[in-house]
Amino acid sequence: MKHSSLVLAMSLTLAACGGGGGGSSDNGGGSGGGGDHQYTPYACTDAVYDKAMELRIYQVMTEAFINGDSNIGHGTGYGTSHHMGDLQGIIDSLDYIQDLGMNAIWLTPVFESVPISGQDHWADRLDATGYFATNFFNIDPNFGDMDTARSLVEQAHARGMYVFFDGVFGHFKTNAQDYPSPSGLTLSTNGVAQGATGREAVYPGDIDFFKEVASYWVEELKIDGWRLDQAYQVPVGAWGEIRKAVEDAAATVTYTNADGETVNPLGYMVAEIWDGGGTQIREEGYGPEEAPGLCSAFDFPMRYRMVQTYAVEESGSGGGNANTLVAGYNTQLANPSHAVPNGFIGNHDLVRFGDLLERGDITQPNEQEYWDRHKAAYAFLSAYSGPITMYYGDEIGDELEGFADRDSSSSCAINGLCDDHVARTSGKIEGMPSGESGAVFTANAQQSDLRDYISELMSVRAANPALYKGEQTIIGHDDSAEVFFAHKQSGSNVVLFISNTSNSAVSIAVTGEEIGSEGQLKDLLTEQTMDIASGGYTIEVAALESLFLEVLSPSADGPQQGGDGGLTGSGPLARCDTPTVSGSGPVGTAVYMRGNYSGGDWGTPASHQLQYKGGNLYQVVIDEPAATAFGFKFADADWDFELSTPSAVVNIAATQDLAKISGNGTEMNIVIPQAGRYVYSMEVDSGLESGSMMVSLCE
Fold first, then answer.
1. What is the DSSP letter of 233?
2. 50, 264, 507, 539 — which has fewest CB within 10 A?
């Protein structure tokens, strides 16, 4: 199974709040860590994860969503919702979710949490989240019963929708050992404590119990797989065995889908490992090529780059641009070949996108930019290569009125305003009761417009496999730093996705050769067409606008980005043996490749210091041991001198302009498609304000 998202031709506090986040245990696998136990490897199944690329998942926080049965409900919890959500409320919302264009639903945990005698209100709140369950083989009566759960799955399947449960296989409530599995297995009692009423699982001792949990619900209700909470708590090797148990169970049962076909449950499993860099996801989620752990994980590195670009992240850091988005895709190149990242923007542990816009003092709901930025962010998500997930309420730009500034005081958990649960607001589904009052919700004009736009995006995505599983090439152009431009192709389906991340309109001139087109382009949102003229196109992109342009006459060679497509350039900038001369040249100080390559961390490692070759030319030869991708600048130790290419994308073997560009998000992005020795060359003009550069594979 090949990488879904890219080809190398691309240019360029849990116990208190429940569910998600936190760092890894020291041993990476619960209190047991697996020791010397040898888990049986299980390869990722192409049929499952190729099909998973089509997923458009709608996530609901069960206790906060819709109150469909007034006779049940926890009545308490974290966040500001009514805390009366249940399974019937989800059933009542299935038509809405389907009309939105989503083809799957993920429910936060629905298993029974049995109160411990004398437990306090904090434990009651934690029970409502479901993230510290007691009885893994029973539906929490506050959410419904087995018949209601079965009806939910069956009605979703009849609509052509998959259903995923939330699997918490790394921790549980301290009374869970009193509730054996149907086969008589019980959980450990010596795991590391998590808060007053929880503890971690112990592996390998608990693996058979959780294999039975994972299989039971596939066999009993025919669910289609699992979202896996804090997946790092389970040894990565154990995931292979649990995956096999799920797929084996799926092979034993069938259901009839919306097309009248008899199918098996999908068997998809996706890891939650809260990691903005990606290293922990790779090591404790995906695992090694020869013994995969999980085959899919939520793409936190890309999520943070999306919100940094279109809003700000929770810390308030923002100011990103198209270059930031390219860097997000670049992080995926370090993943093993079996990895299928799942794109998302929000979930129950993160601040809603709307509240992030307000936190960054960018815009407010009464301003059009608030809605335009939602559209831009979700357009980018709809063009994401891989499965995607949307959090309930984000389709209407939901936000918590009055919440913007980070509340880090001890009272945030009391008033429901901690960052990691503030998004757990009452569900707002058109025509359904919402909030404590139970008033029927009706979207306003802006909410309806955003919801309709997202529905249209999902339709375009579903109809164009290039968007969700196509090979992707980043197109370089004069405004690459502000406008993300990607060529995506799956078979004969070719789509250009363009996202203007700026508040200014941009006109982009590209040749047909550069974008791999020999004829018309068709706008998939407006149905309008654009003809090729004099071998090229001028594409107008409004501020914060996104375009989906189908290439109606793709060229046989695809997009041509830089040079002749080879990796070895010509001329002085491509020489790898130019002698070093004395002195530091016109810059007058040491110059480095400063970037986020392995071991770089935007520092000044001696291995990446450029040597002066005379004639205003600086070079360094780097041995790249494997395919990789990163961002970098030519800069001195104090950042007093820094040069980058205005296009933001490095085309290997091509001579490109350099300019003095300062600030975050102005670095160059490069994809190294194969191992080898590469020369990085910078030739500066006498004023040190500009110059030229090349990266070339040494012959």
1. G
2. 507
